[in-house]
Design goal:
With 251 residues, the chain is of the alpha+beta class. The protein has helices at 10-19, 23-35, 43-49, 54-71, 111-119, 138-141, 146-149, 156-159, 161-171, 182-186, 213-216, 222-228, 238-247, and strands spanning 40-42, 92-99, 102-109, 133-134, 153-154, 195-198, 217-220. 30% of the residues are buried.
C-alpha cells in the first residue's frame, strides 16, 4: 500500500516558481510543457533538447525538490521499495512507455504545475522572436525525436518570474508605450496581466549577464510588444515606438 503523498496546489507551485526555481529548472518544465499535448517526455528526450546528459537532469530535479522542502514544510514523498523518496514525483506523474527494443520512463507535468506555468506566462510558447526565444541549433535537431524538434526553449532571462515580478512592482501594470491597463479594461480577468519587455536584446548578451529588473525591463501590452519586435533587423526602443504612435494618433 502506497503512503499518502503530498500533492502541491497551483498556488503552491506558483510560490515554488517564484521563490526557489532557477531558470534552468523552469527550462525543464517548459520543454516538457511543449513536448506534446500530454505535457510529458522522457528524461533522455528532455536532456537532448537541453543539450545535456540525463543523469544530471535527474539530480537537478531532486535538488529543486529539496529547495521546495524549505518553503513548504512537511512534504511527504512517495517511497520506493528501498524506502528512498521519489522526489521527482512532486512535480511529475510517471509512466513507462515501450519504444523499440527498450522502454522509456516518461515524466508528465502535474496539472497544478501546468496551471501555475500558464498563470505566470512561463509556458515557453513564444516563438519566432529572437529577443524572446532561442531555437535549437541545427546540429542538435538532427539527433532529436520529432517531439523534441517542436520544442522551444525560451530564454530564461526574459521569463524569470522574479525579475518580472520586480519590474511590475516598480513600474505597475500600465503599458509604458500606450498606457493600456488590462485590469481597467477587463476587470478581475485582466488584473495584473502585462507583458515584460527586455530593453537590451537577449541575443546580444552573454549567459553570465544578470538582469536588473528596473533598469532592463519595462511593462508593455502585447500589441506594443509585437510592434517593438516588428522589424526583423532591429528592435525599436520604447521612445521610438511612442514617437511613432504619437505621429499616427488621430485628433
Amino acid at each position: 500500500m502506497k503512503n499518502e503523498t503530498t500533492e502541491l496546489t497551483k498556488q503552491q507551485f506558483i510560490e515554488v516558481l517564484k521563490k526557489v526555481a532557477e531558470p534552468k529548472d523552469i527550462k525543464v518544465f517548459q520543454v516538457i510543457y511543449n513536448f506534446n499535448e500530454r505535457h510529458e517526455a522522457a528524461a533522455s528526450e528532455i536532456a537532448a533538447v537541453l543539450e545535456m546528459k540525463y543523469p544530471p537532469l535527474n539530480s537537478q530535479v531532486g535538488r529543486l525538490a529539496k529547495k521546495v522542502d524549505k518553503i513548504i514544510p512537511n512534504i511527504v514523498y512517495e517511497l520506493r521499495e528501498d524506502e528512498t523518496s521519489r522526489r521527482w514525483n512532486l512535480f511529475f506523474n510517471g509512466r513507462y512507455n515501450h519504444a523499440g527494443k527498450g522502454k522509456l520512463f516518461y515524466w508528465q507535468l502535474r496539472t497544478p504545475l501546468v496551471e501555475a506555468l500558464q498563470e505566470l506566462s512561463l509556458t515557453g510558447e513564444l516563438k519566432k522572436t529572437e529577443d524572446l526565444a532561442e531555437e535549437l541549433p541545427e546540429q542538435a535537431l538532427k539527433t532529436l525525436p520529432e517531439g523534441a524538434k517542436k520544442s522551444i526553449v525560451v530564454n530564461a532571462y526574459e521569463r524569470n518570474p522574479k525579475a518580472r515580478e520586480e519590474c511590475v512592482q516598480h513600474y505597475g501594470t500600465d503599458c509604458v508605450v500606450c498606457g493600456f491597463n488590462f485590469g481597467e479594461a477587463f476587470g478581475e480577468l485582466g488584473e495584473g496581466f502585462i507583458h515584460v519587455h527586455h530593453l537590451k536584446p537577449i541575443s546580444s548578451i552573454g549567459k553570465s549577464y544578470e538582469v536588473n529588473p528596473v533598469q532592463d525591463l519595462r511593462p508593455v501590452c502585447p500589441n506594443c510588444h509585437a510592434m517593438l519586435h516588428r522589424k526583423k533587423d532591429a528592435v525599436l526602443s520604447i521612445d521610438e515606438l511612442i514617437a511613432i504612435r504619437k505621429s499616427h494618433a488621430t485628433t
